[in-house]
Amino acid sequence: MIEDVIDKCPRxxxxxxxxRKWEERDLDGLVEMNxxxxxxxxxxxxxxxxxxxxxxxxxxxKQDQLGFACPVVEDLESGRFLGFCGLNVPxxxxxxxxxxxxxxxxxxxxxxWGKGIAQEAARTWIRFGFETLQAEEIVSFTTVTNVRSQKxxxxxxxxxxxxxxxxxxxxxxxxxxxxxxxxxxxKDCFASVLQN
Length: 196
Ligand SMILES: CC(C)(COP(=O)(O)OP(=O)(O)OC[C@H]1O[C@@H](n2cnc3c(N)ncnc32)[C@H](O)[C@@H]1OP(=O)(O)O)[C@@H](O)C(=O)NCCC(=O)NCCS
Hints:
By secondary structure, the chain is an alpha+beta fold.
């Protein structure tokens, strides 16, 4: 079956970046990023080292099972860990209202913000998702107050509809971050606006 021969997360070099699978050596970078209050502003809390260790193990198990899990972004020149950006299949214990789906998600260290790095990585993986994995649609979601993340979704020509706003099932109903927006990009839209 063709499915078996596709590497769903190949190592890709884009202009300034290496996009690749998670490895054990990414732990220190992940720990530092997840402990940064600026990075975690729109998450319930910063993460202590032990939680990042668990997160890395989960990501590596998932990429073994599904082929990809929010791949690593690395600086091409220096090899520095910049964060993650890429495709993922959400597997929360409680399903999302729009499951099943392929999402594109991102989290970068502040030094990598404001340089178009997330956009460069996201465009590469979106192209891969539609052209190689033959995805019908790629979604992204974030809390309503995360404007930086939504601006990136808009730069990628993803579309939102307020009627699809939802409460994240993993947060308490009265949590300040519970309300989320959903952005969608289908393959026809990708073909018309993102291919060049
Ligand atoms: C969300 C996040 C990835 C967005 O990063 P970002 O750097 O703003 O996004 P982009 O890669 O699209 O970069 C765009 C910015 O770079 C600037 N830029 C500079 N050089 C550029 C270039 N060569 N190409 C494109 N944009 C460039 C743009 O002008 C824009 O700046 P602006 O936002 O001030 O207008 C980042 O803020 C982050 O990791 N946040 C913390 C984690 C988080 O909230 N994740 C999302 C949870 S759902």
